[in-house]
Structure formats: C-alpha cells, structure tokens
Monooxygenase, DBH-like 1 (Erpetoichthys calabaricus), 587 residues
Amino acid sequence: MTSLGFCALLLLMISGLRQVSCSRQTFTNTALLDAHGKYHLRWRYDERTIVFEAEVETTGYIGFGLSPSGSMAHSDMMIGGVENGKPYVQDFYTGTNREVHLDHRQDYHLEYAIENNTHTILCFSRDLNTCDMDDKIITESTVRVIWAYHSDDFKNVHNYHGLNRGRKSLRLLNPQHHQDALESFPFFEIKNPNITIPFKDTTYYCQIFMLPELKRKHHIIRIEPLIQKGHENLIHHILLYQCDSNLNESEVGMGHECYHPNMPDSFLTCESVFFAWAIGGQSFSYPDHVGLSIGTSNDPLYVMMEVHYDNPTFQEGLTDSSGLRLFYTSELRQFDAGVLETGVWVSLYHIIPPGVSEYLSEGHCTKECLQEVLDHEMPLGINVFAVLLHSHLAGRSLRTRHFRNGKELQLLAYDDEFDFNFQEFQYLKEERRVLSGDHLITECKYNTIDRKNVTWGGLSTRDEMCLSYLLYYPRIDLSRCESLPDQIQQLTFIGVKEIYSPVTAWPFIIKSPKKYRNLTFTDAMDTFKWSKKKGLAFNKFVLQQPINVRCSKHNQEEWPQVGQDCCPLSFILFYVRMTCEQGLTTV
C-alpha cells in the first residue's frame, strides 16, 4: 500500500480528526469559495496533474465543477463524500439544458477522504488535460469554479443541493509568490473619506494624498485592497497615479469627480500609473528582489487615487470608504519596480461594431518606442514579472504578444476565458526580458452579439478598453506605450468624405456626404446599418489601417521620435469627460 493510501485509510479510522499533516501541508494554493466560510478549497499542481482538497461544513455530498460560463450548462463536475465510512468520488458532465450525466470516463480520482460530526474533507485529483471531450482542459486562463454541497449523501441526480451552491473565478495555474509575514512591517492606508457616490451609472472619483515623509529610501513590498463590505461589486477598479512633486500641500485631501470640466487642474499632473487594482483581484506582493520605491527625490511625494464606481442599478444614498493598504520596509531590495501601461489608447476612436461574436482589437507598443526609450534609459532591457490584463463587459479573450526581430516569442500573458468580475495581476512563471527594438501587441477579443449600437472605447463598463499593465524592473521613464487606429480612415468605411474643420466640438461633426451631414461621428457610426458581415469586414479593414502611437514619459511629455499628441490642452480640458485622445487614460 502506498503511503498516501495508508494515510487515507488512517484518516478514515480516526474519528473527528481534521488536521491532515501528511498531505494538507503540501497544498500551495487556497481559496474560500462561499461567503459564509463553509467551503474551503486547496490545491497544488505539476506539469500534468492537479490535486484538490475540499473542506466543507457538511456530512453530505460535496459538488465541485469547472464551467465555461459560471452556470451549470456544459460543466465538468465531480460529486463525492463519505457515506457510512466509505468514501466515494464520481465524474459527471452537464449538457446544454443543465442535465447531469455520469461520465463514461471517470477522470476524477479519490486520494483520501475524512468525515467527522460537522465537516467532510475530500481530496481528489485529475489530469490537466484528460483528452475527454466532456472534461474541461485546465490552463493558465481564468477558470469559473462552481461548487455545491448537501446535508445528505448523493443518491442520484435529483438529490438537489438547493441554495448551497455558487461560483467563483480562479486562476488555478497562476504561480504563487512567497509572502513575508507582515506583522513587523509598517504600513499606511489611502482611503476615500466616506464619500457620497453620485446617483448615476458610472462615477470616477479622484483624491490627492501625500505619501509618508521618509528621511531615506524605502520599498513598498505589498499592497492590499480595502473594499468596504458590501461594495465588492460596486468598486470596479482603483488606480494610484504619481503626481507632480511641486503640488501645493493644500491640495492634499482634495477630492472631486475625475474627468469633469470642473475638476482641479492639479489632477492633470497625476498622469503616471503607480499601481493598479481591479475587481476580483486580491492582495499583491512584490518578488523578494523588487520593491516600489518611495522616500527619494525621484519618487512620488503625492499620489492621486482614482476609484471607478460601477452603479448600473442607480442605487441611491451610497457612501464609500474603500482604498488601499501599502506595506513598506527600510530593508531595500535590489531593484525598483515600475508600471507600464500598454494596449489600445482609451478613446472614442476605439470602435467595436454591434452584432459580432468575435471582434479583435490590437494595441501596439512599437519597436520604435521601445528602442528609443531603452537605448536611452536601460540598454540591457527591462524584466517583466507580472501582468494585469484589463477589459470591460464585452471582453472575452485577452493576450499580450511579444515580438523580437520579426519573430514571435512565447506569449507574455493571456486569458482566453476572461471574466470581467475577476481581474488581477498574473505572476509570470519566469521573468521576461524586454529588449530595445522589441514589439508588444495587446489583443482583445470582444463579443457584441447582443448589442444594437456601436461600443466605444471609454470609461464606463459598458464602454470598452484593451490594456495590459506590465510590472517590471528596473524602473525607466516610460509610463504608456499605446496605439490607436486612425479615425478618419475608420470613417471612410461607412462612406464619410469630409468633416467640418477646424474641429470645434467633440465628438466632431461630419460635413459630407449628405446622409451624415451635421451628425457627430458617433451618431453616424450608429446610423450605419451594421450586420455581422459588415462588422467582420470593418474589423479586417481597421487592422490594416495606420495607427497613432503614444510613447509617454512619467511627466506626460512624449518621447520625441515616436510620441504623438492628439489635441491641444485647452481642448482636452473642455472635453475631458468625452474622453478625447487626451491622455487621461483610465481603466
């Protein structure tokens, strides 16, 4: 008998035992699946196999599944438990109508099980790829785990679990990083002071904060989200921007709606992303050799926190005090971390037609930009160690591609099952060196099959974005490396011949042909009679058009050879909320 088999037998013989030292200590990943602390999942994996341990507050059966959408339909499922001292595990799958079928191939395997008077612990394993069409292949993409449990043991498919069920998105194969014990480390918090959230669909709220005054350099080593209880679905993202160190201290604590005509001018100096967190994300710990530098003359003294509130049901009377907790240390690490925003420049010029099941957008961080910056700043290149892929509700699949000398390298990051409600940094299995002359492409695939109007690039979660946030070291003077298709060329697809010039309104007005005269370009795009065929043709057309490139320093200036400004600052200030290509990119 193997040691694992002996351990399983021993566990079944010992009444009431719940700590399993011979196996449980080897699990490297853990997640709480329900809101009441009754369903704990632990797992570990290697190149071929994944092993799960479910600890659930029940003496009945435990259900576990992998779903393409988070629902029961087309799911790969396991049902198991301990009945009269005998453990059982069975492999099931579901069809389109959620009917449950016993899988003819039993690919979930029992490792051990134990049950006491209140809990059941079930350990089971399977291959990452079972070569069974009724099983889901487990990859580095997001996995929608579905779970259930019942007070009775499993009898048949009609033994329904009732309300004891749910779903949780996880990245099962995301490498885990060592996390220091934080009790001995100082921290500071950046939180909104119980602000009132406006009665509307989308609100971006910004406030300026002063970082701790330190006499010498320190490193931030971990950042935790502080989401007010009950607001988990209200807070779509939190961004920290580095501000001009010459700000007046009287502006600290100043809060206002972002991207608003009346927002303080000082907000415009806060342009370089310092850290990013998005919905569903957990705490982030920097690798042992990397930290986020604070306390020197080159580091930010002031930061602006931007919180995106997503309130599609127009709830009234909401107040919020969410924010971030940042742990830091005086024991310096070897390298300073940086954040680079790449992808599609956030703008109304990012156009996605309705009625298309798969529309591809590309954002380029060009070889010209990376060559100019890295030759000047870091000739040996930078090392990427984590990536946050970001899109909105229409996003289905995102990836960051990496090219060198015309040849594609291994994907930098990908998520082929993107979940809008679960966005967090992916640690790379191995750090990736980005060299002078490399070319990065952020690709996003969208599904607009259920939409009647054009989807625009913009701030609302009903608008779209296509971004990759790269965490890297050593830090260089590059904040954004992005691109955007040429707008005039895009308009020629629907037959636009001329716009009014000079441009005095946003969105700008079309002059000809007659059927579009005096319409904004957004209205003209929505007036066009889109079909699936025309949407796909537009996609092919856009991908062949010239692009405008953004190659921005931390102080908002562009690198001279490749950076392109879009419009004068006065125009930006007046139409800032319309998200002209004004450089106020947000997630």
